[in-house]
Each structure stands twice: as structure tokens, then as C-alpha cells.
Amino acid sequence: MNGMYRNLPYVALLSAVTPMGALAATAPTKTAADAELHALCSSSGGESATTKKLCALYGVLSGKPAKRRPPPQTTMVSAAQTPGDGATDQDDANRFNEQTKYRPPAKDAQDPCAKRLFFRSDPLADYHYLVDLSPSPQGASVAFTDDERAATKSLTVNGRASYVLTGDACPRTDDPHSLYTSGYAFALFTSANGNWSEPRKATERSALKFGADAEAEFANVGPIDIGYLSASPFFQSDFRGTARVYGGTFAAEPQVGALNLGVVRHSFDVLDFWWQVRPQATFAQVDTVGLTNYRTGFHPFLGAIVRANFNFFPSTGGQWPSWLADRLAFVATASLFSDVGQRAHYDYYTAQLQYKLPGYDPASVTTISLEYDRGTDIETLSPLNQYLVKLSYAY
């Protein structure tokens, strides 16, 4: 089995961008997948959105030219003559899987080129709007407590909802080896982080944001396979509407397949590992501090977020029982920032052991997790040292 899966890092990312999603245990070797995919990407005619993204990534990862030949000078071409002609996303994906003997599970993810709505824990869990590759994204969580004996109520929220208004996740390119814009998106988002209590407690801290994300994806950026740049203007208040903070966040996210950076790749039979790095600059003008620990004035936060993802018992690594395959994960995150103006440093660390619950919707993930948080969150500058048991939902 180890010999068969030695080349899965080559085909895992390609499979992730098809509507079929993760590879099953019968995935071919690199040589077989290379021949079939090269034939598909060299065919002429009307390629679908999924085929374009698949062939673009094929060019990036394989090092082989994947240019499409000009379409023949004819008005009608049968779909049976060339794999891409007249076919839908589903047709192309079905044909590719049949040719290469892929057998993806039936519950697979939807077309990544068409996804619009996202529910996640933070911007890094959104990863990027253009192709959703993570099998176990960090989800949003809400906890409500009503203590009738003490006559108190409390609400704790950690999540982010965003909707892509416009964009193109699968633009056409004539040469997938040169630098080109491989996608863009514009989305609106709202995020909530903190707690609310009734009666109000002096320790109550919260951040409620509204804003927009403008994101561009670039392929073949020197040694980087794919790079993402984003700009996110926002307005921030709190759960009681008292804070007034205006600003913007600028971030970059690299993807390097050879380093497992930003790419879900098969590592071992019992473990898949990938990591993410997000250099980020947030500039905030605080007019009213509200339920935060900010000071009024201008705050430039410079730093980065690093996240390591471990997926245990991956379905690509063996014949695990259904209650174990692709269900257990460990996620560790370090958020390291400095307020340059105040000469202050804020570090925030989280560790989360999560179990994915069975579900009927392949586009959503529900997890129960044990989490430990320690440090200072830059959205409220509130110090935390806590253990949590959370039920989270990601879409």
C-alpha cells in the first residue's frame, strides 16, 4: 500500500478541485494519472470551469505543458470525440475519474468554482474563497447559558460568515507555467468574537465586525505555486454597539506543494499534515473603545498567523472504519502580532482536538472539540487562559 500512495501528493490537490473531492483508496500512480490528465488537458473545445482549474493546477504541479490546442474549424464536435467538448463540470469530472480509475466517496464536496456561502471560525479557516481544500475546516461556534437559579444569561460566540458576491475561481489561461491571475473574489463578511452576559459583567469583552474581502489568486509566483493577496476594510463594534473602530486588514497566503504549505497532501498512512502561514497587517482607528481593551487612537498591528493541521486516519491511507476515517484532527494555531505604535506585543495560542460528526450534507462539517486558548486576542486585546468543549459548524 505504501508504494501505491507514494505519489498521492501529486494527485491529491488535483482531485480536491473536482466536484468529486477527496481520493478513494484506489487512486492511480503518478504515471497513470499524468498520462490521463495530460490527455484531458490537451483536448480541444469547450472546457468547463472545473476542467480549467484542474488543468491549470496540473501545469503548476507536473512541470509539463498543459496548453490546449486551438479548437478545430468546425461547427459541431461530439463530446465523445474530445473529453472536454460540450461537457458540464460533472461530465468532465466523471470521465476523468473513469479514465484514471478514481473512486471518490459519494458524499463529496460541491463544485469549488461555484461556492458562495462560508461559515468558519476565522479568516485563516476560510483559507480562500477560490478553492476550498481543507477536509476539516475550523467552524463557527455559539454557546448560550440560561441559569434560572442565579437569574443570569450568557452568550459566547466565535465565528465568521461571508458571502461571495462576484468572482471567478476558474479563469482561462493559455499557459499555466507563466505568472497569471488564476482567480479573484469579492465577498461581504461579518464576524463575532467574545461574550455577552445579562446582567452585564465587568469582564464582558466582544468584537462585532462588518466588512468586505477582496481577494486575488496568482499562480507561478517564483518558488510559490499559488499565492493569495487580500484586502479587507471593516467597521468594528461590540455586542452592545458601543465600540467604534474603523480599519483594514491586508494579508498574503502562500501555497507550496513541495512543503505541504497551504496544500492538503497525503503524508503517511495514518496521518495527513499541512500548515498555513498568513502574514498580516491590520490598521485600526479606535474612536470609542466600548467593550474592548483598546486605547483610542491609531493602532498598526503587524504580524502573522501560523496554523498546523493534522488529520488522523485519512481515507487515502487505509481501509479505516467509517467512524474513524477522516474524523479525528488536531489543529494548533499561533497568532503573533505587535502594535507598532504602542510598542506592545500580543501572542495568542490555541490547540484543538476535534472529532468530525457524521452528516448528510457533504458541503458542511460539524465537529465536537476540546480546545485550549492562551494569550491576547488582537480583536479585543482581552487576555485569555481557558479550556473549552465546543460544537462547531463549518460550511
Describe the fold and architecture.
The structure is a single chain. The protein has two domains: 97 residues, no CATH class; 278 residues, Lipocalin (Beta Barrel). It has 395 residues and is mainly beta. It has a twelve-stranded antiparallel beta barrel.
Quick overview of this protein structure:
The protein has 395 residues and is mainly beta. It has helices at 8-16, 30-41, 49-62, 89-100, 123-126; strands spanning 117-120, 140-147, 152-168, 180-198, 206-221, 224-237, 244-255, 271-288, 297-312, 328-339, 344-356, 365-377, 382-394. It has a twelve-stranded antiparallel barrel.
Written as H for each helix and E for each strand, in order along the chain, the element string is HHHHEHEEEEEEEEEEEE
Oligomer: single chain
Overall average residue pLDDT: 74
Number of helices: 5
Radius of gyration: 23 Å
Give the structural class.
mainly beta
Number of domains: 2
CATH top level label of the largest domain: Mainly Beta
